[in-house]
Amino acid sequence: MTKLRVLTIVVVVLALVNIAALSALYFGRPGYGGPPGKGGPKTMVIERLHLDAEQVKAYEILIAEHQEAVQRLDAELLAQRTALYQGLKTLNAVGRDSLLTAAANVERRIEATHLEHFTALRMICRPDQRTYYNALVDDLAALFRAPPPKRQ
Length: 152
Description:
- The chain has two domains: 1-34; 38-143, Four Helix Bundle (Hemerythrin (Met), subunit A) (Up-down Bundle).
- The protein is 76% helix and 0% strand.
- It contains five helices and no strands.
- It has helices spanning 3-27, 40-49, 53-86, 93-124, 130-143.
- The longest helix has 34 residues, at 53-86.
- It starts with a helix and ends in a 9-residue tail after the last helix.
- 3% of the residues are buried.
C-alpha cells in the first residue's frame, strides 16, 4: 500500500470515530439532546403516557399552571439568594442562617410543586395508562435533572 492510501484509510476511520462519539454524546443522555424542536419534556411525556387529544389539552393546562408556579418560586429564590450574598458584606451569622433557611424553604416548595404537578398528571391518566405512568416515574429524576456544569 502506498502512503496516500494508508493516510486516506486513517482519515476515514478517524472521521467515523468522531461521528460515533458525537452521536453518543448527543443522543445518549436521557432528557437532553435529540433534534431541536422535537418538543422537549412535554412531547416525551405525551408519547410515553400515550395521551389522547383530550388528555393532552388537560396536560397543557397543568404545564401552564406548573410553569407559572415555578417561575414565581424561582423569582423568590433569586431574591433570597441575592439577600444572602449581600449579607456577606456585613458578616452577620444570624441573618445568614435565617436567609439560608428561607432559601431552603423555597427550594422545598419548588420540589413540592414538581411533585404536585406529576400527581395531577397521574389523575389525567386512564387506568390502562398507569403502567406507563409508573415507568415514567421511575425515570423522572434522570429525565429532569439539571444539565451538568460546563467545564472551562
